[in-house]
Input
Amino acid sequence: MSLLAEMTQKATDQGIPLSAHLDITWRCNERCVHCYLDHNGEGEMTTGEIKDVISQLADTGTFFLSISGGEPLLRRDCFEILEYARELGFSVKLKTNAVMIGAAQAARLKNLGIEQVQISIYSHLPEVHDAITKLPGSLRRSLQAIRYLRAEGVKVSITNVLMKQNVTNAKAVRLLAKELDVEFVVDPTITPMFNGDRSILNLGISNQELDEIFHTEEFIGNVGEFCAPVSEVDEDVLEGYSCSAGHTLADISPSGDVYPCVQFPMPCGNLREKSFRDIWFAISLRCRFPVAPIPLHWLGQAGVHPNSCRVRCQPSV
Amino acid sequence: MPQSEKYLTKSKTVAARVLGDEVIIMSTADSTIFMLNPTGTVIWQAADGNTPLSRIIVEKLCEQFDVPVEQAATDAEDFVAEMAAHGVLVVSEEPISR
Output
C-alpha cells in the first residue's frame, strides 16, 4: 500500500476528510459554456469566516485543500486566504483560469509553497478556447500565466475538459502541456447545473468518443489497468464505502454550505450555523448507507466508466 | 571536544498534519510524502527553533517512550539528519527565529 493510500485509509477510519475543496467565490471572469455554477456572489463568506472554516478543517485533520471557485483570484483576499492555509500546514492547490496571474502573482504563489496550480485549457486554438470561456484573449493570458508559473518552478496541471466542440483538439493540448512541462489531465465529465438544468449535458462527447479517449494510453496511462473490469462484489465491497463522498473529501461552497462531494450537490449543513465537525459527522453517517432520496437531475454522468464516479448512493425518484 | 547543540525548526516549504499519533508531511518541492512514527512525531512537534535537540531527547523522547538517553539520542540524530536531507527540518547550531 502506498503512503498516500495508507494515510487515506487511516483518515477514513478516523472519520477525517483528508481532502477539502473550498470554493471561495462563484463569481467568475469567464462564462464557460459548460459551467454548472451560477455566478452570483451573494452570501459569500467574509475573510474572517473563511479563515475560521480553514482552522476548523485543520483541527479536524484535513490535509489537502483545494482553493477554487468561480475564479478565486477575483477575491481581493485570495492571497491572504492561501497564506493562512499554508500557515496552518495544508498542502494547497489552487484551481484558477489563471488569466489574473502575472509575474508578480506567480512569484507570490511560489513563495507560499502552493503544491500545484490547476488550470483549465480547452484547446490549443484561441478561437476554440475563447469561444468556450467567452472571454476574448483568455487562452493567450492563461498560457502566459503558465509560463510565469513554470519560470518560478510552480507545479502546474492543465485540465482539458472534453466537449463536442474541442474533443478533436485533445492530442494537441496534450502536446502543448508537454511543451510547457506541465501535467495533463483529460476530463470528459460535464455536470448538470446546480439549479437542475441538464441542458449542458448535450455538450458532452459521444459514447464512442469517450470509449476512444479511455482506450488511448497518452490520455489515461495504462489502458489495461484503467479499463480493467470491476472486481466481483463481495462482502468486503459491501462493507466498504461506495466512494469518497462523505468520507475523504469535503466540498464547501462560498456561503458555507457543506456537501459530501464536489459532484454531489446536496447541502448537508451550513458553517454559519454549525461547526464543520458536527456537519461532517452527520454526513459520514448518512453516506455510510444508501442516502436519503435525492433528485435524479443532481446526478452527473454516473456510470460512464467503471473507474469513474459510480454514485452507488441510488436516488429514489 | 563537546558536541555543539542542534536547534530544529519545521521547514516552511512543507505541508504537515497530525493524524492520531503520527504526522503526515509533504514536501512542496517534490511532493514526496513522509509519515512519521510516534517518535518522529514527538521530535517534529517539539521542533520550535528554540528547544535544543538534547532537551527534546531527554524531556520528550526518554520521558514518553521510556528509552535510555543513548539509544534515544542515536535514533533522534539519525531521524533529524534524514529529515534535514529531505528539506523537511531546518537544523542550526543557533536558535532559529521564524
